[in-house]
Amino acid sequence: MLPHPTSLQLSSKLQALKIPTQHAPNHQNDTDPSATACLNAWKEETTRVLEELKDLIHQTEFTRLANTDMAEQVELISVVARFEEENASWTTPRTKALAVEIMQVFSEPTIAVVTEVLIRHIKPVFQRNPHPSLNISTGRKLHRQAGGIMASQDFYENQDWKDNVGLPTLVSWCVRHIKETDYSRVWHLVIPPIMTMIDDYQVPYKLRGVVIVSQLLERVPQDLLKRTGIDGLILKALNNCLGHFDHECSPSLIRLAINASLSLIMLATTSGSSARFDQLCALLGDGVIGTIWLYGDRKPDVIRASIEALPPLIRVLKVGAARYLKALIPQLVHPLCPSPFGSPNVKLQISSLDALATILEFCSPRINDWKCTILDGAARCWVFIMEKKWDIDESEREELKIRLRTVCGMLAKICPSVVQVEFESLIQCDHALFHDLLL
Predict the structure, then answer these.
(1) pTM of the model
(2) Could you give the CA distance from residue 241 to residue 227 in angstroms, rounded to a whole number?
(3) Which residues pair with 134 in a beta bridge?
(4) PANTHER family under this entry (predicted)?
(5) At 317, is the secondary structure helix, strand, or coil?
(6) Which of 7, 118, 143, 180 could form a disulfide with 3 if both were Cys (CB 3.0 to 4.6 A apart)?
C-alpha cells in the first residue's frame, strides 16, 4: 500500500528542513566564503519550505495530523520546533514566525506525543554521553559518581549531541508541554539531557540548560525533585554557573542562574525552615558575593547582571540579608561614586540604586550604621548629574535622579536623625544643588 500523498509531501519537506551541522556552535568559526554562501542559500530555502509546510498542514484534508497519525506529528514537531529558537544562526525572524504558527497546531500535545519525541529524537542522542551523576534509566541521582574521579573528563569527550543542531530547543519544547501530573512518567527522559546541558563546559550550552531548568521549575512537583535527589544536583550545577565570566553570554547566564536557584530553593524547601535559610544564604554569600563579586570585579556586565538579580533574593531573605551588609552596601554604593576616567555605567548605577532601595526596605533595623556611606555615594552621584559632568542621555539622567531621591527619602524615614544632621549639612553647603535631592 502506497503512503498517503500528503505524507510523501510532508516527508520531503521535513527532509529539506534538516539543519546543517555547520550551524552548530562548534562549527560556526568557519569563515570559508563558499560554505557561508551555501548556508545562506539554505536559510533562504527554509523560508520557502516552511511557507509550503504551513499551507499543507492547514489544508482541510490534513487536519487529521493533529489528532491521529502520531508518527507524523512526532516527525514534524522534531524538525519544526527547532526553528522557534530566538536569534539562532539557522533562523530568521520570518522562519521563526512561520515555525511558531505551524506549531500552534500542537499547542496542546498529549503526553504520548511528547514521550515519543523524547524517546525517538532526544534520548538516543544524549544516551551516548551519560551524565556521571545520573541513573539514566530512572532519572535519579547516583549515590556515587559513575566512572570514578575522571568520569567528568570522559563526559566531555565525544559530545555528538552538539552536532544535532537545535536539539536544546526541542528539549525546551517538550519541557514546556509536560503537565505537572505527567512528569513522573517522563522523568527519566527529561532529566539526562537537561543535566548534560547545564553541566557542559561551554557557556552557551549551560545557558540553554538554565533556561530549560527555569521552565521545568514552573510545573515540576516538589516531591519528585526531592525524592530523586535532582534538586541538589541542579542546585549544584546552577552554583557552578556563577563562576563563568568570560563569554559574551556570561551576564545572561549569571542572571538566569541566580533566578533559577532562587526558584528551586523556594520550591524544594519549606517556608521558615533552616534548610531554606541556609540555601538562600549560600546563594547570596557564597554565590553572589563570594564568587561573582570576588572574582568578576573586572567584568561590569557580569556585576550588573548579578545586581539585577539581587532584589528578589533580598525580598525572600528579608532582614536575614543584614548579615551581608558589610559586603552589599560598599558594592552597591561604589558605582555611584564619580570615576576620574571615562563615563559612568548608568545601567549599573540604576541597578545598584534599585538593589539599595530593596535593602533599605527589608534591612532597615541595621541601616543606621551605613547611613553616611549611602548618603555619601548618593550625594556624589547627584553632584555629577546636576553639574552635567557626565555625558549621558537626558532620560538616563532623569532615571538616576528619581532613584537617588527614592533612596534618600527611604533613608530619611529609616534614620530620622539623618535629616537634622547629614541632610542639613549638605543643604548648608549648597542649598540650590541639594534641595531637590533631599526633599
Answers:
(1) 0.92
(2) 24
(3) 141
(4) TELO2-INTERACTING PROTEIN 2
(5) helix
(6) 7
